[in-house]
Write a structure and sequence with these properties.
CATH architecture: 3-Layer(aba) Sandwich
Order of helices and strands: HEEHEHEHEHEEH
Shape: globular
Structural class: alpha/beta
Enzyme class: transferase
Keywords: Acyltransferase, Lipid biosynthesis, Lipid metabolism, Phospholipid biosynthesis, Phospholipid metabolism, Transferase
Strand content: 15-25%
EC number: 2.3.1.51
Radius of gyration: 16 Å
Number of helices: 6
Number of domains: 1
GO cellular component, one term: membrane
CATH topology: Glycerol-3-phosphate (1)-acyltransferase
GO molecular function: 1-acylglycerol-3-phosphate O-acyltransferase activity
CATH class: Alpha Beta
Oligomer: single chain
Helix content: 25-40%
Largest sheet: 7 strands, mixed
Length: 194
Amino acid sequence: MFYRIAKFVVGTVLRILYKVEVIGLNNMPETGGCIICPNHKSNIDPPLVACFVNRTVYYMAKQELFENIFFSIILKALGAFPVKRGTSDISAIKYSMKLLKEGKVLGIFPEGTRSRNGELGQAEPGVAMLAIKMKVPVVPVAIIGNYKLFSKITIKLGASYDLSEYYNAKLTNEDYKRISQQIIDKIKLLMEEE
């Protein structure tokens, strides 16, 4: 209930501040666990995506974002939970696996951090590792726009990426990075499509 209220309020504010267009909502699985993976240019990306997709998204977000009380309240209301970057945050990983096992939608930025120049960088292994271990699809998402007030922001959801070919494979950390990079490549394609 609180999530829906927060989503409505924050979504309304975002619609006032930006011209938000959503493309490809039908690519979001209606049920079952999945991972949604957007590019990441701004701190408003987690609430932006959460407010405009048709399922509750539980975001893995950097611990530092929760230090601002106002932003922390919004993030938690929208299902976000903290992760310590630069470490193997076991509690965040376990919580992510629990969410996916319960059939929920996990939101992860595949690069693991915000891009300062808007360019997509190198993927971290976490997205592929979680998707393969928990046997869930990945939905690539491109957020396109300059974030200037009253400008247009487009959220494009790509087709679900099925990683079932890797479910029974013995994979290294490098393999997970390579597979996660494929997800970033799918986001790039969405950004380039007209």
